[in-house]
Design goal:
Helices cover about 50% and strands about 15% of the residues. By secondary structure, the chain is of the alpha/beta class. The strands form two sheets. The chain has a four-stranded parallel sheet with strand order 2-1-3-4, with helices on both faces. Strands 5-6-7 form a three-stranded parallel sheet. It is globular and about 60 Å long. The two termini are about 15 Å apart.
Length: about 210
C-alpha cells in the first residue's frame, strides 16, 4: 500500500482543495474529484462516493471525503460509516466555508437567501440558468426563486471580477446582493486535522 492520503471531493471544491494542498506542501496527499453536477442529483452522491472508496482503499492509507451531507438525507454518512471514513462537517459547502455559527446567523437574518461560492459564481450560467432551464422558460425563475429575497456570495477570495459577476447573477434573479468573504480557512483546518491524525497513526503502526 502506498503511504498516501486521498481527499475524495466534490468537484465544486477542486480549486480551493488543490490550492490548500500545494500551499501546505502535502506531497503525500492526492485530491480526486467527482463531477459537481451531482449536486443536481444528490441521490447519486452516496453511490458515487462508495464506488470511489472501493476503487481507492487498497491504494491509500487514509481517505477523507470533502463533501457535506449535500442533500443526501444522511445516506452519504451511512456509506462513510461502513468504511470508517470521515467527511467535512456540516450540511453543505456553504456551512463549512462560512462556519456553522456564521451560516446560522445569515439564515436567521434572512431565510430567503440564495448562496453562491466562487465555483458557483463562475459556473452560474451552466448550473443555474441552463441547468434549471431559466433561459428557455423565463417563467420558471419566479417558480424557483420567488421566495428568495437576497443573494449572498460566500467568497473564498477577494476578487473584484467575481464580485461583479455575482452582482450580475443577483440582478438576473432580482435579488438583493451581499458579499461575505469566508476564505477557505475552515476547510484547510479540517484537512490539517486529518493529515495530522493519519501521520500519527502511521508512526504508531511502524
Amino acid at each position: 500500500m502506498n503511504r498516501k492520503m486521498l481527499v475524495l471531493a466534490c468537484g465544486a471544491l477542486a480549486h480551493e482543495l488543490v490550492a490548500i494542498v500545494r500551499q501546505n506542501r502535502w506531497t503525500h496527499v492526492r485530491v480526486r474529484c467527482l463531477p459537481p453536477d451531482l449536486h443536481n442529483r444528490p441521490e447519486e452522491i452516496p453511490g458515487a462516493v462508495r464506488r470511489q472508496i472501493e476503487e481507492s482503499r487498497d491504494q491509500f492509507e487514509h481517505i477523507f471525503v470533502a463533501y457535506g451531507d449535500c442533500g443526501t438525507g444522511g445516506k452519504l454518512d451511512a456509506v462513510l460509516t461502513e468504511y470508517g471514513v470521515e467527511r467535512l462537517p456540516g450540511a453543505h459547502c456553504y456551512e463549512f466555508y462560512s462556519g456553522d455559527r456564521e451560516f446560522a446567523a445569515l439564515a436567521e437574518e434572512e431565510a430567503g437567501t440564495f448562496y453562491l461560492t466562487n465555483f458557483l459564481v463562475r459556473h452560474f450560467n451552466r448550473l443555474v440558468r441552463k441547468g434549471l432551464g431559466l433561459d428557455e422558460r423565463p417563467e420558471l425563475k419566479d417558480l424557483y426563486f420567488g421566495n428568495y429575497r437576497r443573494l449572498v456570495f460566500l467568497a473564498q477570495s477577494e476578487d473584484s471580477q467575481l464580485d461583479d459577476l455575482a452582482r450580475q447573477h443577483a440582478a438576473f434573479l432580482g435579488l438583493e446582493y451581499q458579499n461575505q468573504l469566508t476564505g477557505s480557512r475552515k476547510v484547510e483546518g479540517c484537512l490539517q486535522e486529518q493529515v495530522v491524525q493519519w501521520q500519527q497513526r502511521s508512526v504508531q503502526q511502524e
